[in-house]
Design goal:
The complex is a heterotrimer of chains A (251), B (233) and C (641). Chain A is α+β, with helices and mostly antiparallel strands and 251 residues long. The longest helix of chain A is centred in the C-terminal third of the chain and has 16 residues. Chain B has a two-stranded antiparallel sheet with strand order 1-2. With 233 residues, chain B is mostly helical. Chain C has 3 domains: 288 residues, FAD/NAD(P)-binding domain; 135 residues, Succinate dehydrogenase/fumarate reductase flavoprotein, catalytic domain (Flavocytochrome C3, Chain A, domain 1, Alpha-Beta Complex); 138 residues, Methane Monooxygenase Hydroxylase, Chain G, domain 1. Chain C is globular. Chain C starts with 15 loop residues before the first helix and ends in a 14-residue tail after the last strand. Classes of the chains: A alpha+beta (251), B mainly alpha (233), C alpha/beta (641). Chains A and C meet through helix 1, helix 2 and helix 3 of A and helix 3, helix 5, helix 6 and helix 12 of C.
Chain lengths: 251, 233, 641
């Protein structure tokens, strides 16, 4: 039913954060069209181990496109060629026999390489830490239906809340900006009455943290939206700027 | 609460100011274009218009200073964003490819720094020749002598390489605005999910009309050898 | 000698929790910062507990194996979360949610725990909404509910198909706020290796920093394990690749009892396996069974295109066997019957391990648009993974391991039999009995984390004097750290010929075939023998690549697979001990002629809690029984005919 393909792989190798990296080439001749991209790398790693070599490290967990762990840059595109799809959900039937595939880690100074294709994305945690929450203590909540929220607002909030924090936006941005990630959380919360209270402090703190982490400026390239596995709109970034201006003006 | 200075220096502040200065410069271009068309109004109109501008004195200097500030601020922001990206991505990709689709990466957006820089150089030449360059003097009935900038324009644009150079630079401005006009409104947070397409379309139409307006003059003058019937003598 | 005391408060069912809260000891607010609490795992239970306890003023140390707390596997839960709000006014109540959960668990869970779960369910929804969780809403602006998993009331709150994600992000954000405030020390990419006991009490843990390989020692006044379930013992499951049993198992080996290990839920509607390289299984919402019809060809090896197989040659086995429930029978029944038809050789596809879920009639009846509006995203997901269009060709589905009801034994306070060691969420055994209802996992994780543990932990800590820690130079820490290091060194030095994944896959097949959907005495005995010999081979012939002092994913896997071997054997022992069929546990010897489960309440109405005993390197486990007393509900046999 399915035939084996031969794929020419070229992937980044770096033994540690400070080590010098290089590309390694390898031909895989047992790639099946039903495999996911990461399963192909599993097969690669099994082959490497059977030869007594070190496997290639890459981040993954749920393999169903929701945890945001995987973040490979495949032939120059974050998560590869398929729209709205994390690379764990990318299947090899999107490739053909004889294809050459280059795999690189997301490149950003704020995402230093840990090993091979694994990078440190703790900068994202610190951005959320700076203000990506509603300051409500456990037990102090009122009845869930006490504040009606327009369906449109709730739906819009969800669109932004869908962010999985994979960092593809940073990887794909020509400036390595984290604006989409940061603004998605800001927009999620500011579209809800619960998040509205802390709106000003949140946007100021999160923007400051984002910059402090060493991410680049946003030039409205929109590449982040194009590669986002959850297809989050850069309208979030516009929201963030409006909120920011308002926060500064209101003082 | 950050001070205004701190806010202006932040990433979002810089982007807001890029948008504000960008929009101000676009508005200036509209006014500039309207002025340019005085060349078709009557024999005296263009020179009287420029003379009037010069006679504004302190007001003109203030306006000029303002424009200069906008241009320099806008350029500074552009250059610092461009420099910043090298810091934010110290190691580049071996292979890089846009995904297309929602991406607005194109010749225009990727060449902002190049088109912007060329425009800046042009501005220096342009201002130098119009403001401080040598020109014939002319005197209209009942008036005092004034610089015949109208003749300068006509003479220049009948020379093919000046006309062509002007058109090339104007095309670069158009390229700059193809990304910049829409981008400025996104930078100011005016766009949202539902209106962003409308803003994009509006920005394209605006840019094309503006540039056609500018480019028509050199083309017309060159094509008619400076003797076209639209030009009043 | 261990005596199992569930510490269930006296009094009427609906008063137990409030009375207990009233009677528990408290730690004064000014003293709380003097107590340190370690929480391993940052899913719904761990994340919610960390946030809540830090808010209360305790010093919390939080650990996760992923690169961020937000990636815990709770994030993948799709369907929703139950609560007894009764917003739709369809007759729901705390009692009814309690009753459905007890009955759904086939009467193998504690009444008091389950009632408390139903009771706090409403607070969870309030809390989540206040945090900004964007639940689905009606046009009125009020929260929407749906009926889920065959429940007769609409009590499920949901956020599209990403309810787990949104609830987890709520807990994560609350937790990150406490990190910012300095009340949580936050450790990512750290794996727990050992619990440290001093004077019989849990006083800390040993972790491995997964980036540098460093073995670290952490001290605390109490340790909470919220480390999820052990479904990955099957190798293929819907669990995330990093989900594992290691923290719970290492605690078990230090003396914590492991309860009901054989209770494993298998979800009927997953995308089937396509080949050996397959690394995980993807679940599709069981709501698909509302409109899809399940069938297989009546003829063995019928390899025609499914659309060419005429109606009278199709076996709609669920509709035939269960005329009143049809395709909507509970998860365990649907899964078991899929296996039965495949065992008869009627399975479809290259592997013979799949059945059809057909929307042809639903599309003909309702139109493609209606079906697409209901299931569009699921159909897209299927098309992406399976490479077939479910609008024109029936889906292929097969059951997959999904959730483990078993886990560390805990009392009503969620404390294990080791003082100071608590277990929460899927890592404990407490609330789901022998089968979990849909949309109840999120409820239990958050109930434990937000509302139960923050109350009960104080009751334990109040008896400890504040600031009386021993320091990590206590020899117990060194011994535990040395043990952790030895395990790592041992694994790296085997240098064998077979890969870790190869062993894991082989183990998974044994567990799936013999300790899976249905079990027999012989099969279980074979399983134990097979597991033992495979485990022996593992320890002599596995190849673990790389170094110990560097990031090394396969070294992590090796340690986890080693623990799965031991757990698998205990699962078989537990299944062998339980001479009845209940919930997800089906022993073929104990079923009616028609294949219906026969439960034995007289002899098996107990929680089996296993005590680890290691004699001369041979795994030995001693069984302890916690009898279940049903004072408030009447035990009934389930029937879906």
């Amino acid at each position: 039913m399915s035939t084996n393909m031969t794929i020419y792989l070229r992937y980044w190798r770096q033994s540690g954060p400070k080590a010098k990296g290089y590309f390694e080439d390898r031909t895989l001749s047992t790639v099946n069209e039903h495999m996911s991209f990461l399963e192909m790398l599993d097969v690669l790693n099994e082959e490497l181990q059977l030869e007594g070599k070190e496997p290639v490290e890459f981040d993954y967990d749920c393999r169903e496109g929701i945890c945001g762990s995987c973040n490979l840059v495949i032939n120059g595109q974050a998560h590869g060629p398929k729209k709205g799809t994390a690379c764990c959900q990318l299947h090899m039937r999107n490739y053909s026999d004889g294809d050459h595939i280059t795999i690189e880690p997301p490149r950003a100074s704020a995402f230093p390489v840990i090993k091979d294709l694994v990078v440190d994305r703790s900068a994202f945690d610190r951005i959320i830490e700076a203000g990506g929450y509603v300051s409500v203590k456990t037990g102090s909540a009122q009845d869930a239906n006490a504040i009606p929220i327009q369906k449109n607002d709730a739906d819009l909030a969800f669109d932004y809340a869908a962010c999985i924090g994979c960092g593809a936006c940073v990887a794909a941005c020509p400036n390595a900006s984290a604006s989409l990630f940061t603004s998605a959380k800001i927009s999620h919360l500011s579209h809800l009455p619960q998040g509205n209270v802390e709106r000003s402090n949140r946007v100021l703190a999160m923007v400051e943290q984002m910059e402090g982490e060493g991410f680049g400026d946003c030039s409205n390239f929109g590449e982040c939206e194009a590669v986002c596995p959850k297809e989050i709109s850069i309208a979030a970034i516009a929201d963030m700027r409006r909120d920011y201006a308002r926060a500064v003006i209101q003082g | 609460m950050p001070t205004i200075i701190k806010a202006l220096k932040s990433q979002v502040g810089r982007k807001l100011m890029t948008g504000i200065t960008g929009i101000a410069l676009m508005l200036f271009l509209v006014v500039h274009l309207a002025g340019n068309y005085a060349i078709f109004a009557s024999a005296e109109a263009f020179n009287i218009y420029t003379k009037k501008l010069e006679s504004l004195g302190i007001l003109l200097y203030m306006a000029e200073a303002g424009l200069l500030f906008f241009v320099l601020y806008h350029s500074y922001l552009g250059i610092s964003i461009w420099l910043g990206k090298r810091k934010a991505r110290a190691v580049g990709y071996e292979v890089y490819k846009s995904r297309g689709g929602a991406s607005r990466q194109n010749v225009a957006s990727r060449s902002m720094i190049l088109s912007g820089f060329t425009i800046l150089v042009f501005l220096v030449v342009h201002i130098w020749s119009f403001k401080f360059g040598e020109t014939e003097m002319i005197m209209y009935a009942g008036g005092e002598p004034m610089r015949d900038l109208r003749q300068l324009v006509i003479d220049s644009f009948t020379i093919w390489y000046i006309a062509l150079g002007y058109i090339v630079v104007l095309s670069l401005i158009m390229l700059h605005l193809f990304h910049g006009a829409w981008s400025a409104f996104t930078s100011l947070g005016v766009t949202n999910k539902s209106n962003t397409q409308a803003f994009k379309l509006g920005a394209y139409i605006f840019t094309i009309l503006l540039m056609l307006g500018f480019i028509f003059i050199p083309i017309y003058i060159f094509a008619t050898g400076g003797m076209g019937s639209l030009i009043a003598y | 000698m261990i005596t199992l005391d569930a510490k269930i408060p006296d009094g009427p069912l609906e008063k137990k929790w409030s009375r207990h809260k009233k009677e528990m000891k408290l730690v004064a607010p000014n003293n709380r910062r003097k107590y340190e609490i370690i929480i391993v795992g940052t899913g719904l239970a761990g994340g919610a507990a960390a946030a809540s306890m830090a808010e209360m003023g305790y010093k919390v140390k939080s650990f996760c194996i992923q690169d961020s707390a937000r990636r815990a596997h709770s994030i993948a839960a799709q369907g929703g979360i139950n609560a007894a709000k009764n917003y739709p006014n369809d007759g729901d109540s705390v009692w009814r949610l309690f009753y459905d959960t007890i009955k759904g668990g086939d009467y193998r869970s504690r009444e008091a725990n389950v009632y408390r779960l139903a009771e706090v369910s409403n607070n969870i929804i309030d809390q989540a909404v206040a945090q900004g969780v964007p639940f689905a809403r009606e046009y009125s602006g009020l929260l929407a509910n749906r009926s889920f998993g065959g429940a007769q009331v609409s009590r499920t709150f949901y956020a599209r198909g990403q309810t787990g994600q949104q609830l987890l992000l709520g807990a994560y954000q609350a937790m990150m706020r406490q990190v910012e405030l300095g009340r949580i020390e936050y450790y990512t990419r750290h794996e727990m290796f050992e619990v440290v006991l001093i004077d019989g009490k849990a006083r800390g843990i040993i972790t491995r920093d997964l980036v540098t390989g460093e073995i670290c020692q952490h001290e605390a006044d109490a340790v909470i394990l919220a480390t999820g379930g052990y479904g990955n013992v099957f190798y293929l499951s819907t669990n995330a690749k990093n989900s594992n049993v290691t923290a719970a198992w290492r605690a078990h080996k230090k003396g914590a009892l492991f309860a009901n290990p054989s209770f494993v839920q298998v979800h009927p509607t997953c995308i089937p396996v396509s080949g050996d390289y397959q690394s995980k299984l993807t679940l599709m919402s069981e709501s698909l069974r509302n409109d899809g019809r399940v069938w297989v060809p009546r003829k063995k090896g019928d390899d025609r295109h499914p659309n060419d197989i005429p109606e009278d040659e199709r076996l709609y086995y669920l509709e035939e066997k269960y005329p009143s429930f049809g395709n909507l029978v509970p998860r365990d029944v649907a899964s078991r019957n899929a296996k039965l038809v495949c065992d008869r050789g009627l399975g479809i596809g290259g592997t013979g391990l799949a059945v059809y879920l057909d929307f042809r009639d639903a599309i003909a009846h309702d139109g493609k648009d209606v079906i697409s509006a209901k299931y569009g995203n699921l159909f897209d997901m299927y098309a992406n993974i399976a490479g077939e269009d479910p609008y024109t060709r029936p889906m292929r589905i097969f059951p997959a391991v999904h959730y483990t009801m078993g886990g560390l034994w805990v009392d009503y306070n969620l404390m294990t039999n080791i003082p100071g060691l608590f277990a929460a969420g899927e890592a404990n055994f407490s609330d789901h009995g022998a089968n979990r209802l849909g949309a109840s996992a999120l409820m239990q994780g958050l109930s434990d984390g937000y509302f139960v543990l923050p109350s009960t932990i104080g009751n334990y800590l109040a008896d400890l004097k504040p600031d009386t820690r021993y320091g990590t130079d206590h020899e117990a820490f060194d011994i535990a750290a040395k043990k952790a290091q030895e395990t790592i060194d041992r694994l790296l030095n085997i240098n064998g010929k077979r890969t870790i994944i190869d062993f894991h896959r082989t183990l998974g097949r044994i567990v799936w075939d013999k300790i899976g959907i249905s079990r027999t005495k012989e099969g279980l005995k074979e399983a134990i023998a097979d597991i033992r010999s495979l485990r022996d081979e593992f320890w002599t012939n596995v190849y673990v690549p790389g170094e110990k002092n560097n990031y090394n994913k396969y070294l992590e896997f090796a340690g986890r697979v080693a623990d799965f071997f031991e757990l698998a054997e205990l699962m078989a022992m537990d299944a062998l001990n339980r001479n009845e069929s209940c919930g997800c546990h089906l022993r073929e010897e104990f079923q009616t002629e028609e294949g219906e489960a026969i439960r034995n309440d007289k002899d098996y109405s107990y929680v089996s809690a296993w005590e680890f005993k290691n004699r001369n390197g041979v795994l030995e486990e001693a069984l302890h029984k916690e009898e279940l007393n049903f004072e408030f509900v009447e035990l009934k046999q389930r029937s879906y005919k």
